[in-house]
Design a protein that fits this description.
By secondary structure, this protein is an alpha+beta fold. It contains five helices and 20 strands.
């Protein structure tokens, strides 16, 4: 039994060492550094809320050497930022599965202190699910990500931007405490598109309608026709907005965008993804209790 425990302990230490090879310190704020993940050749992914300046940013590698870094793109809503670093020759983080509830995981960070700032924390995946309330907690409104991992472990100061890893040292996702300090992990499978857009556009494109709304319950007779029990009541429509130009009126109830049901504001945010920006899109509304189809060219912001 002692040998088994010792072997298991050694395997965890080996996993952290492997993760440490692709985990860097990000020097972009005054108090202490944060962590980052070598995502691709010359690219480091980190947590946006830890980037507190636009210039004089650097990363510290596992060997202790520093390299200057530039912001390639950032998105406060998803709390992700991408840095470009010339001369970074570290291999990208290997990807793991998105984890399973109950599986052992480790949070790894490189924020300062001994052993060149490398630190780790052990726990389990406590849940995997939709963002729910977290999508409204970040400054700036809604979220651009749909799923989240909630690890049951300690996220030490400076761990934001570092990887959550499995017991082989492969990356499950990127850690952040940027959602009201609650430790969460964004799975790498949901990050790919965001990183691509940040590298291409410097920001994340989002669809925009230009209407204010509130969820409403639909009467049973209308719900049967609509195929859902709730929708979004338009309580305001901005002048010259995509909603206005597409014919949406105050009092209309939005029930679908691009064929996807819209039951509440979270559904609408999810539907207005980057792919719809600038595209004519089919909307279904209820007007006076009757379904009506509109075509609206989705705006971008």
């Amino acid at each position: 039994m002692t040998a088994t425990i010792s072997e298991f302990s050694t395997s965890l230490a080996d996993a952290v060492e492997r993760a440490g090879s692709y985990t860097v310190r990000v020097n972009a704020r005054g108090r202490y550094g944060s962590s980052g993940i070598v995502w691709a050749n010359g690219i480091v992914l980190t947590a946006d809320h830890t980037i507190e300046r636009d210039d004089d940013i650097s990363i510290t590698q596992a060997d202790g050497s520093d390299l200057p870094a530039k912001i390639a793109g950032r998105d406060p809503r998803s709390d992700l930022a991408v840095l470009k670093i010339d001369g970074l020759e570290v291999s990208a983080a290997p990807r793991s599965n998105d984890g399973r509830v109950g599986s052992l995981v480790l949070a790894v960070g490189r924020s300062g202190g001994g052993d060149n700032g490398l630190g780790a924390s052990l726990g389990i995946v406590s849940s995997i699910g939709m963002l729910g309330q977290e999508r409204r907690r970040r400054r700036g409104g809604g979220k651009s990500i749909e799923s989240i991992i909630r690890p049951d472990l300690t996220m030490y100061p400076g761990f934001s931007g570092g990887p959550l890893i499995d017991t082989s040292g492969a990356m499950v996702g990127v850690n952040t405490s940027g959602f009201r300090g609650q430790p969460l992990t964004i799975p790498h499978s949901t990050i790919n598109e965001i990183v691509g857009q940040l590298l291409t556009h410097g920001r994340l494109r989002r669809g925009y309608l230009g209407m204010t709304s509130q969820p409403v319950r639909l009467p049973e007779s209308i719900a049967a026709t609509a195929g859902q029990d709730s929708g979004l009541l338009a309580v305001g429509v901005e002048d010259d907005s995509p909603a206005s130009q597409g014919g949406i009126m105050i009092g209309d109830i939005l029930i679908a965008v691009g064929g996807d049901p819209v039951r509440d504001t979270d559904d609408l945010r999810s539907a207005l993804g980057p792919d719809l920006a600038g595209q004519p899109t089919a909307l279904r509304i209820l007007r006076g209790g009757e379904p009506k189809d509109l075509t609206v060219t989705i705006g971008e912001r």
